[in-house]
Write a structure and sequence with these properties.
heterodimer; A: alpha/beta; 7-stranded mixed β-sheet; 3-stranded antiparallel β-sheet; 15 strands; 30% strand; B: alpha+beta; 4-stranded antiparallel β-sheet
Chain lengths: 268, 347
């Protein structure tokens, strides 16, 4: 796919907007919110990220990644107009059809906003399907917040509510959002659980402390959704590393409810 | 039943080599026995208990080239080897019943959901002639995982050595029948034969069904710590295992040309599951050892109705730290019971 646009999101974090290089792929490519792909550079290898753009936005996909290993470093050196590989989509989806007429509460931390951004835009593009839409997004520091331009847009919209927070010490003098860890801020928000689904994406430690807060406010485990980010290679349930018990994150996930996670060994 | 003499068997094997097919059979190398390509049938050995490595490499190579790429004048050319290729026409001779069952297990795993084209191509072009076991050693435990020294599952032809340098012949598949048919004159008919009496006796030490049931309750059991203390995480067990199928995908090449390769990997390595963030869902050797055992004996049966172990004993023979899966599994039952009891008494 051709890199149409590169956006610098945060230190070491970039978003690529990718266009299909051939018409048949563009016409036939279909994905749903929650799915992921293998992005590659010949000679360097493949790397797994979610599709961060909404399926309602046709003709392109976006991915957001942090420069870390061999492949992501090579990707980060690519410029607009260059070609990279993609295979996918893989994995299951967020069941948006089942969320009709419900309130949506999104809770994200750090670099885990991308998988959720796909669902948020998907929901915003079908705004009349859902009742209240609330997004709580936190990062370590102000610089680590991704999609800053969209956060401004979401903050200004009257049909959704955005709360941003940074970890204590991560604020800047002109920071207007909250200061505190995501679970703490969530606790202060005291979210209503009736007719609401919660979607949680973040580092394992954030997820671990967020679930109990949601439960405290009456969220049932089957109404809490998350995505697991286990290391993957093949994406089709063969290479053997993403399993949690007898479940393959690439095939049976990456989207799981908290109820499903409770029945799995804690290997994620 | 059909029988064949040793001399006639060698004639067939020689004819296979002469026909241009690749014949793989047990041969000695550096004092050990391996499945190697045969140039002269005289070098095939028959007096081995088990080869050092399993024959899975014939279906699932250590390194499989998935695709090649080449840039010329800024244009990329990609060759996808999963499409329209035929596997090498090969005959495997001398695999043990456990090896053949292992290859069948692998085939069923790779066929799930999204069938693996590389594996399929190789399997379609491979004929498996196995040899029943008349000898075994203390590491063999096929009877504990539902197999046996004369099990014909997975073989195209199974030979069982009997008296007078002859072999009983069984052909469980069409591929096997076709091969026998094409050398019809070299086989003889005999009356009913008691195959069992020629086979080695392997004591059943545990039941894999019982192990699976136990493992479903054993995840948090401290027994894994103790059991894995000796493990150095070298991955030799996965390397020699006929059923281990985990792999890595890596590129080898530069910005001009190169290949995307699929290489064997092992759950014993810390890097296997390490996240980019530094978080590792299986951070210690004990969690990795638990994954190895539980995957083979609980997750695979639960998910695919397959047992991830054929009882060949290679992992025990190859372990540099002298870990022994058969003993570990037999002891696991006792330890689990004991530890659960201890926890009950002193919570």
């Amino acid at each position: 796919m051709r890199i149409e646009k590169v956006t610098e999101e945060a230190p070491g974090v970039k978003t690529f907007r990718l266009n299909f290089t051939n018409d048949s792929d563009r016409e036939h490519f279909v994905f749903r919110a929650g799915q992921f792909g293998e992005y590659s550079i010949f000679g360097e290898g493949e790397s797994t990220f979610c599709i961060a753009s909404s399926p309602t936005r046709k003709d392109y996909i976006e991915c957001t990644f942090r420069e870390a290993g061999r492949v992501t470093s090579a990707l980060a050196r690519k410029e607009e107009g260059e070609i990279i590989g993609f295979r996918g989509p893989y994995g299951n989806i967020f069941p948006l059809d089942g969320w009709k007429d419900k309130n949506l509460l999104f809770i994200a931390g750090g670099i885990a906003l991308p998988p959720m951004r796909c669902v948020i835009w998907n929901a915003l593009d079908m705004r009349d399907w859902f009742k209240d839409i609330t997004v709580l997004y936190g990062a370590r520091t102000v610089a680590d917040l991704v999609y800053k331009y969209e956060l401004d847009e979401w903050g200004n919209r009257s049909d959704m509510k955005l709360i941003t927070t940074v970890d204590p010490g991560g604020e800047t003098p002109d920071w207007k959002g909250k200061i505190g860890f995501v679970p703490t801020v969530l606790d202060q928000m005291a979210p209503a659980s009736s007719n609401t689904v919660a979607i949680v994406c973040g580092p394992p430690v954030m997820i671990k402390f967020t679930f109990p807060v949601l439960e405290k406010f009456g969220f049932k485990p089957e109404t809490i959704y998350t995505t697991l980010e286990n290391r993957m290679k093949c994406g089709v349930g063969k290479c053997g590393r993403c399993n949690v018990g007898s479940v393959y994150v690439c095939k049976d996930g990456p989207v799981f409810t908290y109820e499903q996670l409770q029945s799995l060994p804690p290997e994620y | 039943m059909e029988v064949i003499t040793h001399d006639n068997l060698l004639i067939i094997l020689k004819s296979i080599v002469d026909s241009g097919k690749e014949l793989y059979a047990p041969q000695r190398k550096a004092g050990k026995t391996f499945f190697l390509s045969v140039k002269d049938v005289a070098s095939i050995v028959f007096d081995y208990v088990q080869t050092t490595e399993s024959p899975k490499e014939l279906l699932f190579p250590k390194v499989e080239r998935m695709l090649s790429y080449k840039f010329t004048d800024g244009k990329i050319q990609v060759t996808d080897y999963s499409q329209g290729q035929e596997g090498p026409n090969r005959v495997l001779f001398g695999s043990r019943p456990c090896d053949a069952i292992g290859m069948k297990t692998l085939a069923e795993f790779f066929r799930q959901d999204m069938p693996d084209a590389f594996f399929q191509q190789r399997q379609d072009a491979l004929t498996i002639i196995s040899m029943s076991c008349v000898r075994s050693d203390e590491n063999c435990f096929c009877t504990s995982v539902g197999a046996g020294p004369g099990d014909s599952t997975g073989s195209d032809i199974l030979l069982t050595p009997i008296e007078d340098s002859r072999y009983l012949v069984e052909c469980p598949t069409e591929k096997g029948k076709t091969l026998v048919e094409s050398y019809k004159e070299l086989f003889e008919q005999t009356g009913a034969a008691d195959k069992e009496k020629y086979l080695t006796k392997i004591q059943q030490t545990f039941s894999h069904v019982g192990i699976a049931r136990m493992l479903s309750k054993a995840f948090d059991n401290p027994v894994w710590n103790e059991a894995s203390l000796r493990c150095i995480g070298c991955g030799a067990c996965a390397y020699v295992c006929p059923v281990c199928s985990c792999f890595d995908i890596q590129d080898e090449g530069n910005n001009k040309k190169g290949d995307r390769l699929r290489c064997w990997d092992s759950c014993a390595f810390a890097l296997f599951t390490l996240h980019t963030s530094g978080h590792n869902p299986r951070p210690t050797q004990s969690t990795r050892w638990r994954q190895r055992v539980t995957h083979k004996f609980a997750y695979m049966p639960e998910r695919y109705d397959l047992v991830g172990c054929v009882g060949c004993g290679r992992c025990s023979r190859s372990c540099p730290a002298d870990m022994n899966l058969k003993e570990e599994l037999a002891e696991l039952g006792h330890s689990l019971e004991e530890v659960s009891q201890r926890i009950e008494e002193h919570p």
